[in-house]
Amino acid sequence: QVQLVESGGGLVQAGGSLRLSCAASGSILSINVMGWYRQAPGKQRELVATISGIGSTNYADSVKGRFTISRDNAKNTVYLQMNSLKPEDTAVYYCNADRIFTGSRWYVDYWGQGTQVTVSS
Q1: Cα–Cα distance, 53 to 28 (Å, whole number)
Q2: 3-state secondary structure (DSSP) of residue 105
Q3: Distance between CA atoms of 36 and 46, rounded to whole angstroms?
Q4: pLDDT average, residue stretch 85-102
Q5: Is 18 within 8 Å of 118 (Cβ atoms)?
Q6: What is the gyration radius of the CA atoms in the chain, in angstroms?
Q7: Using CA atoms, how far apart are residues 3 and 111, in angstroms rounded to an integer?
Q8: Sign of the alpha-carbon torsion through 103, 104, 108, 113
Q9: Which pLDDT band, with edges at 50, 70 and 90, does 12 fall under?
């Protein structure tokens, strides 16, 4: 069984920083694109950032220059360093893996349970 477990969320003042982590567990051989998405109350889930297996990154315009996504393939872990946080960054942040291969099956569009990030003004 594969799991994505996020950690690192919390409450921070505007201008502060947080680092989110998402570790994939299970008998994993490879993970394709990993990413972070967020959903604020009353809004649709939106892309924050993604990173491919070879390190190509993509960011939402709203976080460019403030957030940095990275991954450690040996640990099957993706990170999101969030700097200069704003109140509008407040949301539940979800980790996603578009394809996970265990050797016996593919897990497609796999999600973590989410971690709350709250930025106070």
Answers
A1: 14
A2: coil
A3: 9
A4: 97
A5: no
A6: 14
A7: 8
A8: negative
A9: very high
CB-CB contact of 100 with 28 (8 Å): yes
Q: Rounded to 5 degrees, what angle do the CA atoms 35, 78, 97 make?
A: 40
Residue type, 120: S
Q: What percent of the chain has pLDDT over 70?
A: 100
Pull the structure tokens for residue 2: 């594969």
Mind giving me the DSSP string for 1-53? --EEEEE--EEEETT--EEEEEEEESS-SEE--EEEEEE-TTS--EEEEEE-T
State the average pLDDT over residues 43-62: 97
Helix (H, G, I), strand (E, B) or coil at 73: helix
Mean residue pLDDT across the chain: 97
**Amino acid (1-letter code) at residue 111:** W
| Residues 12 and 119: beta-carbon distance below 8 Å | yes
pLDDT-derived band at 115, boundaries 50, 70, 90: very high
